[in-house]
Amino acid sequence: MSRSRGERVSDVRRLMAAARAVYARRASLEADLVRSTGLSPQGVELGFMSLERDATDDELASLAEAAGDARHVHVVLSANVFVAPMRALALARAAAPLVTVRPSPRDPVIARALVEAAGDDGISLVEERDVGAIEADAIHVYGRDVTIAEVSARARSGTVVLGHGAGLGIAVISPGADLCASAAALSLDVAAFDQRGCLSPRVAVVVGDAERASSFAAALDAALTDLGPRIPRGTLLDAEREEAVHWCETLAFAGRLLRGPQHAVGLDPGAGLAIPPTGRHVLVVSSDDRAGVAARIAPIRSAIVITGSDDPSLAQAVAPAHARTARLGAMQRPPLDGPVDRR
């Protein structure tokens, strides 16, 4: 029998109470998270600001509606964003009375802490890595597209697989924006999780001419330089470092590169979009007017998960239909009203 919306919301509220308990003891988890994520201690503290600890009645009603209805949901988590297990668990618990969770073996800290703090008999951790051995009627899988494809191929016949894959964020700087203030706000969105999440902005479109885009790139470079000592970048994986070197060399040759000790800002005067890698790298491009923003982002439109702007009306006007919108500085903290990835 399907649970009522009230029962679903009540189960999610129990998880939010667990998130508040985990947040309250975050200092005790810091060392483990530094080891598992590679983030700096200050980066871990910044990341905790995105842990969903509260929501409005309307947001929870939307979450319950978006979650669907199942008997048993199995959740396969990734390691890109250490607070992501909270939303994943909330969606699964809103959908089903029985939830099993396989934490990321690389970063299981928050998933385990949330399940322990929730004390919910409907949620349990499992170590089984073969999804074919899981008797769930739905599997929610988070991670790379190849991981989603592998889970889909191995899941039991009749099991519904819902994948939440890779994506990125973009920022749009309005014609009337204060460039320094917008750059300072955007720098926090870029620094969160060292840009590994699908909400992380990697491209900034400045409405205006090339000179204005250049001014914004300089302001963002200054903001990230100022942020570095306060929230140091963590350790990059070998593959991330290699991608960063290649991207920086490309932008230095084809455009203009502003490089700091822990970041790089590229300015591309051409029509292409050389998407930056993770690790606090941002591409800045210009659009002559608001109408031209859509054309500028067309090559990456399907991958965009969130559009941030200093002007909410501009974000709404240019964002793809599947993307969330947010103010700069709050791109990593969407309301708990459904999955982050709405594609």
Structure overview:
It is globular, with a radius of gyration of 20 Å. 42% of the residues lie in helices and 18% in strands. It is α/β, with parallel strands linked by helices and 343 residues long. It has two domains: 5-164, Aldehyde Dehydrogenase, Chain A, domain 1 (3-Layer(aba) Sandwich); 168-327, Aldehyde Dehydrogenase, Chain A, domain 2, CATH 3.40.309.10.
Short note summarizing the structure:
The chain is of the alpha/beta class and 343 residues long. Helices cover 42% and strands 18% of the residues.
Total domains, how many? 2
Radius of gyration: 20 Å
Sheet with the most strands? 7 strands, mixed
Q: Averaging pLDDT over every residue, what do you get?
A: 95
Number of strands: 12
**Overall 3D form:** globular
The percent range for strand residues is 15-25%
Distance between the termini: 29 Å
Name the CATH homologous superfamily of the largest domain.
Aldehyde Dehydrogenase, Chain A, domain 1
Spatial sequence of strands, sheet with the most strands:
8-9-10-7-6-11-12
Bin the helical content.
40-55%
CATH architectural category of the largest domain: 3-Layer(aba) Sandwich
Helix count, DSSP H or I runs of 4 or more residues: 12
CATH topology category name of the largest domain: Aldehyde Dehydrogenase, Chain A, domain 1
Q: Structural class of the helices, strands and pairings? A: alpha/beta
CATH class of the largest domain, named: Alpha Beta
